[in-house]
Amino acid sequence: MTKLLGKIRFGGKNNLVPFYHTITIIFILLIVSCSKPAGLIGVIVQPEDTKLKIGYTDTLTVRVYSKEEDSVRTDELSVSQLGSNMDPVFGHTTAGVYLQFMLEEADHNFGPNAQVDSMVLYLLYSDSYGDTNTPQTIRAYEMEERLDVDSVYYSNLEVQLGSIDFADYEYIPRPHDTLFINNDSLPGIQKVNMTANMELAEKLITAPDDAMADNDAFKDFFKGLYLVTDPVSEGGAIVSYDVFSNFSEMILYYHNDDADSLSFDYTITLLNSTVNKYVYDHSAGDISFKQQVVDGDTSLGQQNFYLQGLGGVASVIKFPFIKEWDKLSPVAINEAKLIISGSETDPLWGAPPQLSMAEIQDDGTFGYLVDQVEELEIYFGGDYKSSTNSYTFRITRYLQSLIDNPDKKDNGLYLITTGASIHANRFVFDGYKPTIDTARRVKVELLFTELN
Question: What's the predicted TM-score (pTM) here?
């Protein structure tokens, strides 16, 4: 560099380089002569044995199996389920509903010599699950026990019923029809004739004055109806109804000595108690499903495991050797993604849109995962991904808690469908050691750092 500077002269006619160009060249040469490759910075300062080691694996041992759920809470739901469905894998499902009614107006008088013309139950469609082309038969029985709107009820509720069927109504569900009223479009309305036996209509039209005085007295007089359908042998659908709609009600049509074409409404409101009841016959499913879910052979989870809404089937997921990691080498889990993939290429009647996961507590109850509480819901996961026919959950903090707390009991994770009280969707998963496609086995993708 000294020799180069000696060749540069300043000023005069013989100046070879303008002054400001000279300064620029000198600055560049100083920088280049003093620099070292960026990748070598700190190499001598940080010893090899102190560097953090990043690792990845998808071979963490996972165990999973499915079981029948006990029940789900079903009182005062946004929609009510009614229908029967026969699934080739899961067997038979029947959904019924307990309905309580209120008076359109208190102290109503039906007039002199009132006579019943007919009585019809109207139910506004909401949605459906299954084969709606299968004919079904609705039964309607009077409840002999009163329900309390402030009480909590579950899907296995048993209420004493009368023996008379007031409906005996065969129909084909039409949940996707459209009804136009005053230029407004609404879902279709199912009409159920309630005079297959006239006893209930006669009871209502001859109700004593004290029973018509107010709604509390009326609910003691007429405790409500239980609607249910006959089991179907194949196909069939579980149909959702918006029973709290103004269009869902029971209407008694009558006449008296003073007038014809009269009617009186019995409404269903949020002040009424409505409870869904779900009954399963999983023994009618395929043999592998029955052996695992009904008979309790948890080892079959290596091939497939299952989920079913309406409180049907849940799954338990465990990581039996996760605590051994800390004994081998202290680790910090950067990310843990639990991936569960569908076994059926095209899920029958549609996959559950979202799944939910909870931590099983020592007393058998369920608690939120720390990942779900402390992270954004969208990051935690559980949504169905149709492109891969799979679901993904991030359970990083949960697995780290098992590693960091040797005394913490690993009771496992409880997997169910989101909105299981009202959604009937079911799903078949590949297990942790399937024979057909091991690439789609249930697995955890772990990104971790070894701590020295």
Answer: 0.84
Q: What residue numbers bound the domain in which 25 lies?
A: 2-37
Question: Would you call 355 helix, strand, or coil by DSSP?
Answer: strand
Q: Supply the DSSP symbol for 451.
A: -
Token pair of 172 as six digits: 């084909």
> Do 123 and 261 lie in a common domain?
yes
Asked if 258 and 351 sit in the same domain, the reply is no
For residue range 339-378, what is the model confidence (pLDDT) as tens digits?
999 999 899 999 999 999 999 999 999 999 988 877 666 6
Instruction: Say whether 183 sits in a helix, a strand or coil.
Output: coil
Would you state the structure tokens that stand for residue 122, as one six-digit string? Answer: 């109207």
Within a domain: 27: yes
Report the number of distinct structural domains present in the chain: 3
In order, the DSSP letters of 32-75 are: HHH---GGGTTTTTS-GGGS-EEEEES----EEEEEE----B-B
The tokens for 256 are: 């008296």
> Element (H or E) spanning 120, and its range?
strand 115-130
Q: What are phi and psi of 449, to 5 degrees?
A: -120, 130
Same-domain pairing of 20 and 58: no
